Amino acid sequence: MVPELGIIEGFYGPMWSWAERRELMTRLQPHGYRFYWYAPKADRYLRRQWQLPHPPAQARDLADFARWCSDQGIAFGVGLSPFEVFNRFDGDARTALAAKLAFFESIGVSRLAVLFDDMQADTPDLALKQGEIMAWIQANTAISRFAVCPSYYSDDPVLDRVFGQRPQAYLEALGKALDPEVDVFWTGPEVCSKELSPGHLHRVGAALGRKPLLWDNYPVNDGDRMSRHLHLRGFTGRPAANAGLISGHAINPALQPTLSAIPAMTLADCYRLGPDYCYTQAFVTAAQEVLGSELANQLHGDLLSLEDAGLHRLSADRKATLHERYQASHHPAAREIVRWLEGAYQVTDEMVQTQ
Questions:
Q1: Residue 355 near residue 343, CB atoms below 8 Å
Q2: Distances in Å between the alpha carbon of 287 and those of 46, 130, 239, 301, 333?
């Protein structure tokens, strides 16, 4: 059994082009990827300045991509982060939300995610207020498929340290406050979980009163530390038995769209093959499909440098050797590696704090 698979473009840092989004989904759709959530942190009209309308050119691009997804049979969703709206859900907030919902409807959004992640959340009755906001949204739009990202979307205590102590029984309260048909994103025991076990998903599902929708933070590589590494290897720690315990599996991709396709393909194999899945062989097969045999073999041989060592631990000589090696190829994945070696994908703390 393979769950519904898709992309949640929810990373910090430089944004992709629309052509890159189309290319990624064209590669992944044959592997079972059926939905795409557009929610980059750098789109300020969805987050820090969500009350403002998208400029006309950006609105047209969004509408064009929504139409393209519809033509391809891909469900297109948008992730709206109404920044700290739960602290003042007043008339002005409702007016701004109504305008944003009307815009989403006009461009063909079929799924809407309301993302309460990565913002200060030490608010009394947090879950009840978020449930109230979602109920209002559902009553004021023709969009019929919804998801929520909780303020505390993982068991990871780092969220409490950064955004305030989570309320007691927050997940249980949120589950009761939400319509049963609303999906709830969950990243697992950690923000970037090494393993997602059936036992963990059983517990979270019981707390929420519904199967969680996985927001899988692999192969994402945003942030100051992670952006120094390329996440390329096949998925591990996602047993096929999870399929019946989740409402879907969305992966947050890496900053490099072409390279992201490689691990994404292995996730489909992980579910499809079950106990016969081999993550190393799945990587090789996916890399050959995306890159061709020669470049795939080259990438396989350089995994220790690109994924494990990372930019900060590469010597100047090793970095120069890799740069020359991949500069010789015109493949878009090779160009992504060259740009990464040149520091073009470095995500700073300032980006994370201001996007």
A1: no
A2: 33, 42, 21, 12, 10
Check: CB of residue 348 under 8 Å from CB of residue 8. no
In our burial notation (b when 16+ CB lie closer than 10 A, e otherwise), range 78-104 reads: bbbbbbebbeebeeebeebbeebbebb
Ordered structural domains, the chain, with CATH: 5-286 (3.20.20.80)
Spatial neighbors of 263 by CB under 8 A, at least 6 apart, are 218, 219, 231, 232, 233, 234, 235, 251, 254, 283, 286
Sign of the torsion formed by the C-alpha atoms of 166, 167, 169 and 173: negative
d(CA 123, CA 115): 16
What is the CB-side half-sphere exposure of residue 291 using CA atoms within 13 A? Answer: 30
Task: Give which of 219, 227, 160 is closest to 193, Cα–Cα.
Answer: 219
Beta-bridge mates of residue 78? 38, 112
C-alpha distance from residue 27 to each of 34, 117, 287 (Å):
12, 29, 12
Q: Bridge partners of 5?
A: 33, 249
Per the CB < 8 A criterion, the answer to whether 183 and 175 are in contact is no
Q: Report whether 159 contacts 126 (CB < 8 A).
A: no
36 within 8 A of 6, measured Cβ to Cβ: yes
pLDDT by position in tens, the chain (length 355): 899 999 999 999 999 999 999 999 999 999 999 999 999 999 999 998 999 999 999 999 999 999 999 999 999 999 999 887 877 889 999 999 999 999 999 999 999 999 999 888 888 899 999 999 999 999 999 999 999 999 999 999 999 999 999 999 999 999 999 999 999 999 999 999 999 999 999 999 999 999 999 999 999 999 999 999 999 999 999 999 999 999 999 999 999 999 999 999 999 999 999 999 999 999 999 999 999 999 999 999 999 999 999 999 999 999 999 999 999 999 999 999 999 999 999 999 888 888 8
* Token pair recorded at residue 268: 């489909």
Burial of residue 230 (number of CB atoms within 10 Å: 0-12, 13-18, 19+) = buried
